[in-house]
Design a protein that fits this description.
disordered N terminus, alpha/beta, two-stranded antiparallel ribbon, 14 helices, 390 residues
């Protein structure tokens, strides 16, 4: 292949001195390494990143046509269904987290991290002590910065997954062992064959529960699917095959009040100027990143079916991170886009976890009540609502 070279190092011994000679030899295409793919360029100024890395959608299409199908391999002579059964035994990825990170070029890209959080259980009452058990083993508990960060984690019940991704030095031994046993060398064998990599990633995409913990990442995942990623990486997967998406939003009360106002403005079909004015007035105390992404929420019914057509389960967890009253939040306004999403796709399973509201102050106009499934008209909902004590 033109531009590809094999570098061989020759060591010449002479007394106590050794010199290295580098010999560049052309390599036939079939001898090129199967993983990863690197675009070599001649000396000089490096081309832009987007010019050397294919986009995720184009990657899957162009790479399949370019790679060797390995038709002589015994593995690819068996039916695809049997190969998928083999892959399922080798790679068991039930959940993955997706977060956005800024690259050195200033462009935000998606990053996939492990999920080690235990499954939800109605029998377990979590009061926060599980986030730092050693703190409660002492006679005089003293909260430190690690415990504070865990309590304020915007990943909610997946706080340990956030810590593993960004603060692994603070993880417990159990968390590190869980991560090691979960990941291990599961993906190492994929480096041997490009075709097998594409097949496994397609299966993983269709069976994995992907977790998102902020609107910026959600918008990046849904609308900016053309962002350049490293070839043959999980980040370059075909997102149209995602079937399960879980969103966790743990924010200040002001954040949810702003979401409610913007959703109400969208429902009333106000003109763009009025909606923009309401949005700017209600977002004055929010972070800049929240200001730029919160308006994305009302557009869920239009963008999710377009960019994630294979979605079959949508799980949403809403909670606030300060001492205040959730009863003032208009749940029905915030979840109106989710309701519209379910109306557009009757096969979509919708599950929402919300803080528990004190029964005497429940209001059907703002809150979802236990008997909503028996109601007729606007009060009837397809959402499966679960309440948590906080």
């Amino acid at each position: 292949m033109k531009g590809q070279f094999e570098v061989a190092c020759r060591f010449h011994g002479g007394g106590h001195q050794q010199t290295t000679g580098i010999l560049a030899q052309p390599v036939p295409p079939r001898r090129l390494p199967a993983f990863p793919i690197h675009q070599l360029s001649p000396p000089g100024q490096s081309p832009p990143l987007g010019a050397t890395i294919m986009m995720p959608t184009a990657l899957a299409e162009q790479t399949v046509a370019a790679i060797d199908n390995q038709d002589a391999s015994p593995l690819f002579k068996i039916p695809l269904e049997l190969r998928r059964a083999i892959y399922a035994n080798l790679v068991d990825v039930s959940a993955r987290h997706i977060c956005s990170v800024a690259g050195s070029d200033g462009i935000s890209r998606l990053r996939f991290t492990l999920c080690i959080a235990p499954g939800p259980s109605d029998e377990d009452y979590l009061d926060g002590s599980e986030r730092c058990p050693e703190l409660y083993e002492s006679d005089i508990p003293v909260a430190g910065p690690i415990f504070k960060r865990r309590l304020l984690s915007s990943w909610g019940p997946h706080w340990m997954c956030e810590e593993l991704a960004f603060h692994p030095q603070d993880c417990s031994e159990d968390a590190l062992q869980a991560a090691s046993s979960l990941f291990g060398d599961a993906f190492s064998f994929l480096r041997a064959c490009k075709r097998m990599f594409l097949e496994v990633v397609d299966d993983v995409t269709a069976t994995t529960d992907f977790h998102v913990a902020d609107l910026q990442t959600l918008q990046l995942l849904v609308e900016n699917s053309g962002l350049p990623h490293a070839p043959f990486s999980l980040e370059a997967l075909n997102r149209s095959k995602i079937t399960r998406l879980s969103i966790t939003l743990i924010q200040r009360l002001k954040f949810f009040q702003t979401m409610s106002n913007i959703c109400r403005a969208s429902q009333k079909d106000q003109d763009q100027e009025d909606a923009s004015k309401l949005s700017s007035n209600s977002k004055g105390n929010l972070n800049p990143e929240d200001n730029s992404n919160i308006s994305f929420w009302p557009r869920l019914p239009s963008v999710l079916p377009t960019h994630l057509p294979g979605l079959r389960k949508f799980h949403l967890w809403l909670d606030y991170n300060r001492v205040c009253y959730w009863s003032v939040v208009n749940e029905r306004s915030i979840l109106a886009p989710v309701e519209a999403l379910g109306t557009a796709n009757p096969q979509l399973e919708l599950v929402c976890v919300l803080p528990r509201v004190h029964p005497p102050i429940e209001n059907r106009r703002r809150h979802y009540l236990p008997d909503d499934a028996d109601q007729e008209g606007p009060a009837r909902s397809r959402l499966k609502i679960h309440r948590i004590i906080r």
